[in-house]
Amino acid sequence: MIASNSTSHQIDLFNPTDAHLSLRESVSGFAEKEMDEQAKEHDEHETFNTGLFKKLGAELGIFGITVPEKDGGHGLDAVAAVIIHEEMSRFDPGFTLSYLAHEVLFVNNFYHSSNADQRKRYLDKVISAEWIGGMGMTEPGAGTDVLGMTTHAVKKGDRYVINGVKQYITNGSIGQVFLLYTKLDKNAKKMTSFVIESSYKGFSVGKKEEKMGMRSSPTTQLVFEDMEVPVENLLGDENSAITHMMRNLEIERVTLAAQSIGIARRCIDIMCDYSVRHREAFGKKLIEFGQIQRLISESYADYSAARALVYQVASGLSPEVRNSLGAASAKLVATQMAERVSRNAIQVLGGYGYCREYPVERLHRDAILLSIGGGTNEAMQKNIASDLKKMWGG
Fold it and tell me: Which domain of life is it from (predicted)?
């Protein structure tokens, strides 16, 4: 297995404190024991493992990782979030994506956008995993162009009445609470966010998507038809949600990048195990052939470089410190790397890699989503160029 800092007991870039190292060891052990074997079944049947999700709270206790301890969380940072997503994605990236939607897209975002009363009403439920959370931003006609959204809210007395449709919502069919982005005016260039419950009248779940990968994570439409939301569920001020969204996008992007790191690490482990221990050709171990050496060595080097970038960026992120350039760069590099490495793993294993006996074909399918979600890689390229232009006075 690739050397992990979970076994070296070193405090370094990947485990900057004893708390981070302990977290990595706990999550790594849990993921290998509880997530590996169930992943294939839930991928094949496109089902979500609700029982396992509850175990993340009851046994592992990794919800509210970035919420301060005074409010019931762990008070840790973006590096801790990256550690969790890396370790879990080695075994089931799809399930980990649902964890990300709950923990990063809802819990982290909600905490830093909410007031004391809202936290009192919702935090305990999502940190305990009594309720599953998600976030509604993308629409059928508005993905990367988020300001093109048409879901709108109209204030009527002590309620906001919301109409619209959200598309590709992770945890849409299993969630009880969502952070929802809307407009107060369809033509406005500003957004307003709310916390909503699936029990609200006018809330419904639309079609479930049949996906290429990440199949153990449910993805659906959310439909709002004159859905009434209490005014006390407004997050922050009206027309202030872009600030919340951009702040949260950065930790979302580094955790998606961390999923790519986990996928690549597992693929390299499988390549090495297969080519060193299990496969020979013409009387030699497979790893002794130059073509195979190239695939494995380039995979390891690319993985190592991407991993260092992801952790370096994560180490500087906080709710008070922004780094859009770093977050976009980390996501762009790591997601492209994971697609290459998982494809290399299929090639090294040959027919076995293409079949479902080994998990590399599933990991490759899962990896492809990461270059789309959280802002496409094309959007990352645009954002990087825009930030560099500003830095150079353009």
Answer: Bacteria
Measured between alpha carbons, how far is 298 from 290 in angstroms, rounded to an integer?
A: 12
Number of C-beta neighbours around residue 122 at 10 A: 22
For residues 34-50, give the mean pLDDT: 96
- Spatial contact of 228 and 202, defined as CB atoms under 8 Å apart: yes
Q: Over 70: is that where the pLDDT of 6 sits? A: no
Averaged pLDDT for residues 186-206: 94
Q: DSSP string of 104-150? A: IIIIIHHHHH--HHHHHHHHHHHHTTSS-EEEE--BTTBSS-GGG--
Residue 63 confidence (pLDDT) = 97
Active site residues: 252
pLDDT category of residue 321 using cuts at 50, 70 and 90: confident
Q: Where are the domains of the chain?
A: 5-127, 133-240, 242-391
Amino acid (1-letter code) at residue 50: T
Fold of the domain built from segment(s) 242-391: Butyryl-CoA Dehydrogenase, subunit A; domain 3 (1.20.140)
A 10 A CB-CB count for 8 gives 12
Give the integer Cα–Cα distance in Å for 80 and 59.
18
Ramachandran area for residue 350 (φ above 0: left; ψ -120 to 50: alpha; else beta): left
Burial class for 65, CB neighbours closer than 10 Å (0-12, 13-18, 19+)? buried
- pLDDT grade, residue 394 (50/70/90)? confident
| In the chain, % of residues over pLDDT 90 | 86
Only one residue has tokens 């004159």, namely 226
Please name the residue ranges forming H helices in the chain: 5-8, 18-30, 36-45, 50-55, 78-89, 93-100, 109-113, 116-127, 241-273, 290-315, 324-349, 351-354, 360-369, 377-391
Per the model's pLDDT, the better-predicted residue between 143 and 98 turns out to be: 98
Place of tokens 């629409």: 139
CATH homologous superfamily for the domain 5-127 = Acyl-CoA dehydrogenase/oxidase, N-terminal domain (1.10.540.10)
